[in-house]
Amino acid sequence: MKFRAFIVEDSPTIRENLFATLTELALVEPVGAAETESEGKAWLSSNANYWDLAIIDLFLKEGSGLAILEAFKYRSPQQKMVVLSNHATQDIRWRCAQLGADAVFDKSMEIDALVDYCVKERDKIEH
Predict the structure, then answer these.
(1) What is the pTM assigned to this prediction?
(2) 14 lies in which domain range?
């Protein structure tokens, strides 16, 4: 079984790099992406059985990643939502946890930790 990831990120470069990195290093299958809060919410809700991981940026072209977290706080237990942001302060990490994020990673310093997290979660599904 593949570990399927959906990315909500408004930077095309970051999206492409994330998909490439996660596909190669964590054996994650990219299933789609969105640039805005409304696109992200719409895709995640209409494809509820087609994703295992959502990687969400906080500041989007339209809307907020926090609103996406809040909308999917009560998702299936095997579905993980993580935040990848340049603003991963202690306050932001706390707020994301309150809204149901499984983890928060800093874009500039914690990509390796995100890859490790994906590998760990993928292994749980496969075993």
Answers:
(1) 0.95
(2) 3-126
Nearest-angstrom CA–CA distance, 55 and 35: 12
Length of the chain: 127
First to last CA, the chain: 10
The structural domain count of the chain equals: 1
| Pairwise CA distance, residues 98 & 122, whole Å | 24
DSSP assignment string, 43-95: HHHHTTTS-SEEEE-SB-SSSBHHHHHHHTTT--TT-EEEEEES---HHHHHH
- CATH code at 64? 3.40.50.2300
DSSP state of 6: E
Residue 55 binned pLDDT confidence (cut-offs 50, 70, 90): very high
